[in-house]
């Protein structure tokens, strides 16, 4: 299963294992989440300091860079 939004993409894989009668004993969920996958830059606000030559200079970004996180979850 894949979940997507404008800034986040998640891939989820459920794997049942073990049996107790006719039912699964547990499920292992693997999840990979990608934040800002295409590494698009969101620039911060320009400087509004009138002294010096820094007026209008953008010196930082508003968000974070590309991040990937993996997780395992045991559901029993």
Describe this entry's structure for a reader:
The chain has 76 residues and is an all-beta fold. The protein has strands spanning 2-4, 8-20, 23-35, 67-75. Strands 1-2-3-4 form a four-stranded antiparallel sheet, with no helix packed on it. The two termini are 20 Å apart. 0% of the residues are buried. The model has no long low-confidence stretch (mean pLDDT 83).
Draw up the topology in text:
Elements: E1 2-4, E2 8-20, E3 23-35, E4 67-75
Antiparallel strand pairs: 1-2, 2-3, 3-4
Order of helical and strand elements:
EEEE
Provide the structure class: mainly beta
For the sheet with most strands, the description reads: 4 strands, antiparallel
> What topology, given as strand order, has the largest sheet?
1-2-3-4
Q: Roughly how many Å is the radius of gyration? A: 22 Å
Low-confidence residue ranges = none
Number of helices: 0
The outline comes out as rod-shaped
Assembly form of the protein: single chain
Q: Care to count the β-strands?
A: 4
Mean pLDDT: 83
The percent range for strand residues is over 45%
Distance separating the two termini: 20 Å
Which bin fits the share of residues in helices? under 10%
Quick synopsis:
Helix content is 0%, strand content 50%. It contains no helices and four strands. It has strands spanning 2-4, 8-20, 23-35, 67-75.
Descriptive keywords:
76 residues, mainly beta, 0% helix, 50% strand, rod-shaped
